[in-house]
Every structure is written in structure tokens, then in C-alpha cells.
Design brief:
The chain has 1 helix and 7 strands, in the order E-E-H-E-E-E-E-E. By secondary structure, it is mainly beta. The chain has one domain: 2Fe-2S iron-sulphur cluster binding domain, sarcosine oxidase, alpha subunit, N-terminal domain (Ubiquitin-like (UB roll)). Strand 1 and strand 2 form a beta hairpin. The N and C termini lie far apart (29 Å). The mean pLDDT is 95.
């Protein structure tokens, strides 16, 4: 089964068993935020340790995309 979510204002469909990070990577999204110096940052560990996959999910900032399962209607905003 697939679910539909919104990533930076665009619709994305993915398998319902994925994490937000897996869905983003499958859609070709590799930059999730910017460092204080403006450098692009992306996921590193994929298991919640490095904190490089932080995004805003349904208005809540600093959520770890690698630990958050997708669900229908989820709104994700990257800092890219």
C-alpha cells in the first residue's frame, strides 16, 4: 500500500512501511538542511545518532527523518 505526503510543497507517494528519510532518499532528496555556514547537510548514519537528518514534520522542527515512519498526509519541510 502507498501513502501520500508533502515534501517542501510537492506531493510524494511512497510505500507505507518506509521512514521519512527512506522516502526522501527514494525521491532523490539528499540535502535536508544547511549548516550555519550554509553548507548542504544530509543523512549520515540513518539510525538516529548523528542528527543530520533533522527536518520539520507537521510544523514540529528538528524531527529525525530516519526515526519517523511515513503516514498519509504528513507534511515535511527540509531546510535545504
Amino acid at each position: 500500500m502507498t501513502v501520500r505526503l508533502e515534501v517542501d510543497g510537492r506531493a510524494l507517494e511512497c510505500a507505507e512501511e518506509l521512514t521519512v528519510l527512506a522516502a526522501l532518499l527514494c525521491a532523490g532528496v539528499t540535502v535536508l538542511r544547511r549548516s550555519p555556514g550554509g553548507e548542504p547537510r544530509g543523512p549520515l548514519c540513518g539510525m538516529g545518532t548523528c542528527l543530520e537528518c533533522r527536518v520539520t514534520i507537521d510544523g514540529q522542527p528538528h524531527r529525525r527523518a530516519c526515526l519517523t515512519p511515513v503516514r498519509e498526509g504528513l507534511r515535511v519541510t527540509t531546510g535545504a
